[in-house]
Design brief:
alpha/beta; 3-stranded parallel beta sheet; globular; 7 helices
Length: 257
């Protein structure tokens, strides 16, 4: 890959990356179970960190990571790329004010059967809720705020104990509701629908759009880099990431058999 893209410098391992004084920031796309470990090590090495979603395994981990970022004076941002897509932002902006949703329905699923896939290994932080359910929780909170009631049910793999499909109902202080669904057992499916007093609005493929013509990954990285360069707050704040993990924790607690 380095040869193909004319990259002259190649690190032997992650430690070499962190030891390189020319490296200002790192992106952590590793399995969920080691997000905290490598984020803390990267921050301690003086690097800014863009860490894949979900930020941690739970809200407690996310809060510890946020504290490490503040102590180090380095930026930490959760890589929720879908929040940077112009069509997603326009959808959310259009549903504020008079069009505030009464109900939000969000779904994200795809088939997964390879037992060696990290998403199907509980020790690596696998499961549908953390992998794809985090998107549905994020968009519901983006539109409705913080839920005061959380109900959930899940189907678990009998061998691994990993959650394969999760359904959740959320109620919000303002009276709004949300129905969320995520799965590793379905045909590929994703979407978000908002019902308001004036109409129903839907956005197809809100979580994986790419080069249509916008590239949300590029927009996210550019935003992160701008925050690093200018010393400004990240567009996805650590408070936002911790709050999202709290709701995921509540769903996980409610869905236990």
């Amino acid at each position: 890959m380095a040869s193909q893209h004319a990259i002259q410098k190649v690190a032997g391992d992650y430690d070499d990356v962190l030891a390189d004084p020319e490296v200002e920031a790192v992106y952590i796309p590793l399995v969920n179970s080691v997000h905290r470990q490598w984020t803390e090590r990267s921050l301690a090495a003086g690097k800014h960190v863009l860490c894949e979603k979900p930020l941690g395994m739970n809200a407690e981990e996310a809060a510890v990571m946020a504290d490490a970022s503040r102590r180090s004076g380095r930026l930490l941002m959760e890589a929720f790329m879908y929040r940077f897509h112009p069509s997603m932002r326009a959808f959310v902006d259009g549903l504020r004010g008079d069009e505030r949703p009464l109900h939000v329905q969000a779904s994200f699923g795809f088939p997964l059967s390879d037992a060696s896939n990290y998403r199907l290994q509980s020790t690596l932080g696998g499961g549908a809720l953390l992998d794809v359910g985090c998107y549905t929780v994020s968009v519901a909170r983006w539109l409705l705020g913080e839920p005061d009631t959380v109900l959930a049910r899940a189907r678990f793999d009998q061998t691994t104990g990993v959650d394969m499909s999760v359904s959740s109902l959320l109620h919000f202080a303002g009276g709004g509701t949300a129905s969320l669904w995520c799965s590793f057992e379905s045909a590929e499916e994703q979407g978000v629908t908002a019902v308001t007093g004036k109409g129903t609005y839907a956005l197809e493929r809100p979580f994986t759009a790419w080069h249509d013509p916008h590239d949300p990954y590029q927009l996210m990285v550019e935003s992160f880099a701008d925050s690093v360069r200018n010393g400004t707050d990240a567009e996805v704040s650590l408070d936002e990431s911790i709050a999202n993990m709290r709701v995921l924790d509540r769903i996980r607690a409610a869905m236990q058999p």
